[in-house]
Write a structure and sequence with these properties.
CATH class of the largest domain: Alpha Beta
Low-confidence stretches: none
Radius of gyration: 17 Å
CATH superfamily of the largest domain: HUPs
Number of helices: 6
Structural class: alpha/beta
Largest sheet: 5 strands, parallel
Helix content: 25-40%
Mean pLDDT: 96
CATH architecture of the largest domain: 3-Layer(aba) Sandwich
Shape: globular
Strand order of the largest sheet: 3-2-1-4-5
Strand content: 25-35%
């Protein structure tokens, strides 16, 4: 059986990637969440990463969760931290694949390809090159529910912050992306997300009480007050 380590931020793409490898019969060796000290890391997702344990508890996979802190604010040093941490993990828990939910970010894909070459494993990116509109709709079709935790794109209104993205909202986002030119799957950092429900959760979901911090009409973020299983 193919053994995989899944990069998991708690957002929609990494959650769908975890779904994919489970359904494809991979053995999950570990689920890795990087928690950067910087609010603006170069290669990984920051918002709500401290709550990924709740998601994996509902997936009955908490024992597989490996949380790795990143201390550097510099691009090269951050990449080295990621590489060294995965190299150390491989020495403790051998695996065949690193799984990444990326669909269009050359920077992320190149970094993890290089890491895989260095360690001697393969990179699996199940959604690489997928149409971003179809990707967004596929996530909803699977039954994944997520909220918008950051907004940072011209044309993407801050009123969406904290809202659960359903099909009606997804269609609105797609329409706005055509008008303003941003990626509707947010692959370019236009927004970030946090998953509150998947069909693999044990019946319950995650509730989020929050405030919003608005920088401008098209920029803001959610400040979590309480995140809990409900």
């Amino acid at each position: 059986m193919k053994k995989a380590v899944v990069m998991f931020s708690g957002g929609k793409d990494s959650t769908l990637a975890l779904h994919a490898v489970l359904l494809q019969g991979f053995e999950i060796s570990a689920i890795v969440t990087f928690v950067p000290s910087s609010n603006h890391p170069w290669y990984v997702h920051r918002p709500f990463t401290e709550y990924t344990d709740l998601q994996l508890q509902l997936l009955s996979m908490k024992e597989k969760h490996v949380t790795i802190s990143l201390s550097s604010n510099e691009k090269v040093l951050e990449s080295l931290e990621i590489r060294r941490s995965l190299e150390n993990l491989y020495e403790k828990i051998p695996f065949d694949y690193i799984v990444l939910g990326v669909i269009a970010s050359d920077a992320q894909r190149t970094l993890f390809l290089n890491i895989c070459d260095y360690i001697g494993v393969k990179l699996y990116t199940p959604f690489w090159g997928r149409d971003p509109v179809q990707h967004l709709l596929d996530i909803l079709n699977v039954g994944i529910e997520f909220i918008m935790t950051t907004v940072n794109a011209w044309g993407l209104p801050v009123e969406l912050l904290g809202q659960v993205v359903d099909f009606a909202m997804a269609l609105k986002i797609i329409e706005l992306s055509k008008k303003y030119g941003f990626n509707p799957s947010f692959e370019g950092g236009e927004a970030e997300t946090f998953v509150i429900y998947t069909p693999l959760f044990r019946e319950k979901k995650i509730c989020v009480d929050y405030e919003t911090h608005i920088v401008s009409y098209f920029e803001g973020y959610v400040i979590p007050k309480s995140v809990y299983i409900c």
